């Protein structure tokens, strides 16, 4: 592995039965970068994150340094949100699982801006943005050096989405994190990532946002023209 790279992936293939979702993928991520993983529905973005977390079987090489600590913010958790649990209970369960002192819970709650009132709220009634903060706080409990986010703002309105990305930016700066982010929002990708990996039915490609977020690359990947908006101050400017 190159000394500057935090992650090296070589010839990664992930298949379910005869269906190869990812085939012969190789790429490197330097430490401190933000990589956005984009691509059409079903192109394997979540599967790639799961492979990087060793949660699904794969062939090929995924090389993290031994000191790395991975934090995962899933797209959703498949628990019934109506079960009678408080936000604090979920954080305590995760801290207990990681054998961490309870003091760590307040630390991460403060980091993501969770109020005492929110901590004492039932998970069944928190908003999408508040639940997303909870998932981020749970990922932060293990003091990660790398955060892997799966669609952190899916189902949030624009204001909540802004707040979550601001939080992610702040955490990245404060904790010196490397970030791997799955997103469908190409304007967010353009703004927050310095590397973009585009998965598609054709050949996957990786490069800077200026190289990957072009009409040609996006049209080939999505098999349809894509348009996104750059947020610049208070107005939006269409890009192609
Ligand atoms: N455990 C599994 N067993 C069998 N097939 C799976 C499994 N997990 C994922 N797949 C298949 O892998 C493919 C890629 O799924 P994945 O969830 O990674 O797509 P994605 O790019 O994240 O899509 P989306 O943008 O819709 O979230 C899909 O065809 C999916 O059905």
From TrEMBL:
Keyword GTP-binding attributed: no
Residues covered by the ABC transporter domain: 7-226
Pfam short name (any one): ABC_tran
InterPro entries: AAA+_ATPase, ABC_transporter-like_ATP-bd, ABC_transporter-like_CS, Metal_Ion_Import_ABC, P-loop_NTPase
Hydrolase found in the keyword field: no
Listed Gene3D superfamilies: P-loop containing nucleotide triphosphate hydrolases (3.40.50.300)
SMART domains in the record: AAA
Keywords for the protein's UniProt record, in alphabetical order: ATP-binding, Nucleotide-binding, Transport
Gene Ontology MF, one: ATP hydrolysis activity
Domain of life: Bacteria
Annotated family: Belongs to the ABC transporter superfamily.
PANTHER family: METAL TRANSPORT SYSTEM ATP-BINDING PROTEIN TM_0124-RELATED (PTHR42734:SF17)
Protein name: Metal ABC transporter ATP-binding protein
Source organism per UniProt: Edaphobacter paludis
Source lineage: Bacteria, Pseudomonadati, Acidobacteriota, Terriglobia, Terriglobales
């Amino acid at each position: 592995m190159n000394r500057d790279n935090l992650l090296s992936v070589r010839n990664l293939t992930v298949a379910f039965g005869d269906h190869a979702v990812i085939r012969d993928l190789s790429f490197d991520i330097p430490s401190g970068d933000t990589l956005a993983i984009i691509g059409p529905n079903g192109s394997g973005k979540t599967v790639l994150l799961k492979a990087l977390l060793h949660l699904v079987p794969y062939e090929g090489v995924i090389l993290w340094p031994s000191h790395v600590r991975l934090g995962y913010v899933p797209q959703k958790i498949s628990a019934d949100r109506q079960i009678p649990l408080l936000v604090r209970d979920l954080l305590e369960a995760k801290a207990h699982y990681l054998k961490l002192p309870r003091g760590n819970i307040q630390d991460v709650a403060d980091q993501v801006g969770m109020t005492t009132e929110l901590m004492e709220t039932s998970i069944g009634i928190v908003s999408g943005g508040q639940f997303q903060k909870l998932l981020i706080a749970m990922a932060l409990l293990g003091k990660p050096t790398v955060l892997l986010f799966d669609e952190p703002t899916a189902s949030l309105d624009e204001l909540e989405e802004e707040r979550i990305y601001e939080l992610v930016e702040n955490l990245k700066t404060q904790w010196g994190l490397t970030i791997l982010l799955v997103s469908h929002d190409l304007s967010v990708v353009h703004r927050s990532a310095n590397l973009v990996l585009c998965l598609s039915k054709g050949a996957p490609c990786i490069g800077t946002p200026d190289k990957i977020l072009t009409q040609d690359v996006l049209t080939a990947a999505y098999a349809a023209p894509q348009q996104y908006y750059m947020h610049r101050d208070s107005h939006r400017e269409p890009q192609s």
